[in-house]
Amino acid sequence: MGRLDDKICIITGAARGQGEAEARLFASEGASVWLTDVLDAEGEAVAADMGGTYRHLDVRDEAAWASVVDDVMSTHGQIDVLVNNAGIFSRGRHFEISVDDFNRVMDINSTGVFLGMRAVSPHMRDAARGSIVNISSVAGMQGGINAFAYFTSKWAVRGMTKAAALENGRRGVRVNSIHPGLIDTDMLQTEVLEGQDTDRTVNQFVPMGRTASALEVANLALFLASDDSSYCTASEFVVDGGMTAL
Ligand code: NAD
């Protein structure tokens, strides 16, 4: 028996990285998984390989959200889990970045999460069950330098999670946030650690002395998606090798 048997799950940003790991793990635990992303070739390939369904969904696009949710509801009649995972990283200090740069990060990382919650919550509330998992970051737990929009957007995810959880509490819909540290994906290698000595950064900032695999975050997402976390809502779940304790 799988931990997500009979559950219908939507995952954003599922073409690669953490979203892909979550999609594969959820499917292996019995879920029907709808993978969404803007990287269509990669998303189609992952979905075909694991037996999921892929749809193009730019998380900023309200109409696209409605279309995906309509498709899922007409196919299955229910949505049990949404993982709002899609995100981008961006460098720049508050006195350097343009308003356009700031808004682009906020639109994807924060408004995208709001649109996703808004699209699925009515269906989950009607069914009196559901779990929404929002991927924030350790950047949503503390301050930091030279990624102003990213930090702001991830704190917004943490705040939206709490507000939506309280609004959904008595309707059986749980909402929690995950706060990963340094996770070994394209984002970490090509953007977060760009130009840095990786070993030095990891040794300095991670008490466990290593980065995590995407699967180590997916395991936490699985817990929050499943009924194993039935009394968890409005909470932050950190998976960071001890980073935020420093
Ligand atoms: P990634 O870059 O490998 O994956 C991000 C995915 O989001 C990609 O598939 C990308 O195409 C998709 N995406 C980007 N913009 C989109 C949009 N507008 N609409 C739909 N999809 C879009 O990075 P990842 O590490 O797998 O990141 C997953 C999440 O984890 C992100 O929210 C990220 O901010 C967060 N996070 C990552 C780390 C890390 O160290 N990698 C740490 C903390 C938090």
Characterization of this structure:
The protein has 246 residues and is α/β, with parallel strands linked by helices. Helices cover 47% and strands 15% of the residues. The structure holds nicotinamide-adenine-dinucleotide (NAD). Residues 12-13, 15-19, 37-39, 57-60, 85-88, 108, 135, 137, 180, 182-183, 185-188, 192 line the site of nicotinamide-adenine-dinucleotide.
**Could you tell me the mean pLDDT?**
97
Q: Unreliable stretches, pLDDT < 50, 5 or more residues?
A: none
Shape: globular
Helix content: 40-55%
End-to-end Cα distance: 40 Å
What structural class is derived from the secondary structure elements?
Answer: alpha/beta
The percentage of residues in β strands lies in 5-15%
The total of helices stands at 8
Please describe the biggest sheet, giving its number of strands, its sense, and whether it closes into a barrel. Answer: 7 strands, parallel
**Could you say which small molecules are bound to this protein?**
nicotinamide-adenine-dinucleotide
Task: Please give the number of β-strands.
Answer: 7
Supply Rg: 17 Å
Side-by-side strand order of the widest sheet: 3-2-1-4-5-6-7
Give the oligomeric state of the chains in this entry, treating copies of one chain as homo and distinct chains as hetero.
Answer: single chain
Order of helices and strands: EHEHEHEHEHEHHHE
What is the compact description of this entry?
The chain is built from eight helices and seven strands; from the N terminus they run E-H-E-H-E-H-E-H-E-H-E-H-H-H-E. It has helices at 17-28, 40-50, 62-76, 99-127, 148-168, 186-192, 198-205, 214-225; strands spanning 8-11, 32-37, 53-56, 81-84, 130-135, 173-180, 236-239.
